[in-house]
Amino acid sequence: MSHWFSRIFRVVATLIVVAVASLVGYQLWVYYMDAPWTRDGQVTADVVGLTPDVSGLVVEVLATDNQQVKAGDLLFRIDPSRYEIALRQAEAVLASKKAALVLAERNQQRYSQLTDLTVTAEEKQTVDTDAAMATAAVEQATADRDLAALNLERTRVKAPVDGIVTNFTMRKGDYVTTGHPVFALIDSDSFYVDGYFPETKLSRIAVGDRAVVVLLGDDPVVTGRVQSIAGGISSSNVAASSSLLARIDPTFDWVRLAQRVPVRIELDQPLPAGVKLVVGRTASVEILPQTAGTGAKPAP
């Protein structure tokens, strides 16, 4: 009898172990294949290309590589000599135009007091035209003076946003050109995470859902919410053609790989202690479904 119960116990125990293993395997399959999570995430931020508005030699460099700066901080100065001269020239021209305007207005006033027996209507029209042209010349000279002053002010290049100076190699004596970026400034108030999710999981992701982000190499968990889902991605199978019609390259893959779609995660502030956000860092992202608009935060 004991031998019989022993055999039944072994069979039941085996069935229980198989059932538990099957359940665990099924849950793992659902998690890896269906749950909205990805290890293909990346820290991103807005990058401002620092571009001088005027050209010239760099005479002073105040910023350093990887320096944290505030909006309005002076980063470097361009030689102002040429622009100071241009401003003085513009001010001299403006003074000359103002003097001409004063003379034209005096002539206009004098002619307006004369009768038609003294001067002709054509002479009065000429004087009025001279006064109007002198007024326009003053306005033009004023604009030129303001532009010269603006160019002089732009020789002092300042940080447009709070951020981190990066890839900074500028040295005193370098020549910078209008419209050509000289280094990058990472906007420190714009950090977010892009999670690249397989298209098969998009149906389980909604704008506003809570999200959990774990940076590679960090233990603290960063929380956030789904800010947006990309509206489109490029296709490597579509190419332009001379007929203006789409040309689709044929594919013969036996296994169709799901496309990756960017999902932007807005991070909660403040960040946990010890978390260092660096553009390009790898992150794992998990979406907590059906939390849109609830404000619920995941348990640590």
Automatic annotation (TrEMBL):
Transmembrane segments annotated in the record for this chain: 12-32
GO terms of molecular function: transmembrane transporter activity
A single cellular component GO annotation: membrane
InterPro entries, A to Z: AaeA-lik-b-barrel, MdtA-like_BSH, MFP_Efflux_Pump, RND_pump_MFP
Every Multidrug resistance protein MdtA-like barrel-sandwich hybrid domain range: 47-186
Span of domain p-hydroxybenzoic acid efflux pump subunit AaeA-like beta-barrel: 190-287
NCBIfam families linked to this entry: RND_mfp (TIGR01730)
Family (UniProt): Belongs to the membrane fusion protein (MFP) (TC 8.A.1) family.
Protein name per its UniProtKB record: RND family efflux transporter, MFP subunit
